[in-house]
TrEMBL record:
<dbReference type="InterPro" id="IPR016181">
    <property type="entry name" value="Acyl_CoA_acyltransferase"/>
</dbReference>
<comment type="pathway">
    <text>Siderophore biosynthesis; mycobactin biosynthesis.</text>
</comment>
<comment type="function">
    <text>Acyltransferase required for the direct transfer of medium- to long-chain fatty acyl moieties from a carrier protein (MbtL) on to the epsilon-amino group of lysine residue in the mycobactin core.</text>
</comment>
<dbReference type="InterPro" id="IPR019432">
    <property type="entry name" value="Acyltransferase_MbtK/IucB-like"/>
</dbReference>
<keyword id="KW-0808">Transferase</keyword>
<dbReference type="GO" id="GO:0016746">
    <property type="term" value="F:acyltransferase activity"/>
</dbReference>
<protein>
    <recommendedName>
        <fullName>Lysine N-acyltransferase MbtK</fullName>
    </recommendedName>
</protein>
<keyword id="KW-0012">Acyltransferase</keyword>
<dbReference type="Pfam" id="PF13523">
    <property type="entry name" value="Acetyltransf_8"/>
</dbReference>
<feature type="domain" description="Acyltransferase MbtK/IucB-like conserved">
    <location>
        <begin position="23"/>
        <end position="71"/>
    </location>
</feature>
Length: 200
């Protein structure tokens, strides 16, 4: 019996780095890799520190059943390097904090530690450019919204370097449902329009 072929939703060359491919997260198969990333102190703003491998798998299995929120594993030449999550802002708590426009898409990004290749200047910018290409062009969206924790200065600086326009600081309300618990979060909104990322 052979494994089913991997379905990549996007593939793009990142100049000087290699081929980036994006595929849906396999909650069970990818759980160990994801748990290693989200449980690290450097990922504290991701909000999953302290969870077990199985709890991480459960969260991504739950997300896989949603029509409005999607999780993707990002690979560079076959090696996992990031998690990209997309969501419909109108179906997310962020909609309570800003005026959603038609064509908006929300994004969360978690980059993996540098790994064996070591840190490489320009890598995060190259990866973010691939993400912008996938969500704005590949999914035909007009604007990306991000909502990093206001204390996550590194993430915000990365978004600004990519051309994101800084928006307001907002308080995302707590979500307490049987399947999902998200604590209240003070976030810095930022936006990237397609015409800024890809000028005609």
């Amino acid at each position: 019996m052979t494994d089913a072929p991997v379905h990549y939703v996007h593939e793009e060359k990142a100049d000087g780095f290699g081929t980036v491919r994006i595929r849906p997260v396999d909650a069970e198969a990818d759980a160990a890799v994801l748990h290693g990333w989200v449980s690290a102190e450097r990922a504290s703003f991701w909000g999953m520190n302290g969870l077990t491998r199985d709890q991480v798998a459960e969260i991504y299995a739950h997300m896989a059943g949603l029509d409005t929120h999607h999780a993707y594993l990002v690979e560079l030449d076959g090696d996992p390097v990031a998690v990209l999550q997309t969501y419909e802002p109108s179906e997310d708590r962020v909609s309570e904090c800003y005026e959603v426009e038609p064509g908006d898409i929300g994004v969360h990004v978690l980059l993996a530690p540098a790994g064996e290749r070591g840190a490489r200047p320009g890598w995060s910018s190259a990866l973010m450019a691939v993400f912008a290409s996938y969500v704005l062009v590949g999914q035909d969206r007009r604007r990306v919204v991000v909502d990093p924790d206001v204390r996550n200065e590194k993430a915000l600086a990365r978004f600004v370097r990519q051309g994101f326009e800084v928006g307001p600081v907002v308080t995302l309300p707590e979500i307490d449902l049987p399947d999902v618990h998200l604590p209240e979060k003070t976030a810095q909104l930022a936006f990237l329009r397609r015409e800024v990322a890809f000028p005609a």
